[in-house]
Amino acid sequence: MAETDTSSALSHPLIESDHIEGTAVFAANGKRIGTIKRLVIEKISGHVAYAVTSFGGFLGVGSEVHTIPWEQLHYDTKLHGYHTTVTAEQLRQAPEFSRGDEALLSRYERQKLVNFYAEPM
Amino acid sequence: MAETDTSSALSHPLIESDHIEGTAVFAANGKRIGTIKRLVIEKISGHVAYAVTSFGGFLGVGSEVHTIPWEQLHYDTKLHGYHTTVTAEQLRQAPEFSRGDEALLSRYERQKLVNFYAEPM
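^ Those are the sequences you sent over. The predicted structure of the assembly is below.
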């Protein structure tokens, strides 16, 4: 059978900036824990800096939006989504500025966030 | 005067994936020649591969959409947009697959496009 347009786009190694919303995020145990709302990109280098991600249920208190450094997301070509080792405990203790929909962080905040998630809890 | 939200976002070094559309593109002579419709990003590396860009008037035949390799776009922090040395002649002679709204190119097409625009005309 021919692939549908959707499955073809899912398995393509590239994604369009206006089709990023809804990309799945999976926990270390393979459970789907959230979806990407938007990526935030460095204008000069063209590299993704972090992803604003909605977590539903994972934290046990409804849906929450968190900013996750790109280094914590690893694309899985079979699942068509990103794996992360970020834990519910980390999300709960993450810096205040990263727990919300404020997408444009300062250089200081970005570094603080990278350091926070790089540290094992 | 305090900056408005808009000018603050314009001068920020980061941009949200859902706010990319409309970013200005300028020719070598400083003239505004187009706007970015979307960026196309490598899912695994998180690097921008190319930009689907609308050129209006530049080609003298109404508005046209072209896929431009990321290497041909250089962010200008003063103009809040991308400079390019791509010429109208190059756009006219660009490979057929890059002259339209087909955003997900194959690996072969990407390489062909990078080579085409890297070659001086």
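Helices of chain B lie at 5-11, 88-93, 107-118. The interface with chain A takes residues 9, 12-18, 20-21, 38-44, 46-49, 52, 70, 75, 77, 103-105, 107 of chain B (CB under 8 Å).

Shout if you want it in another format.
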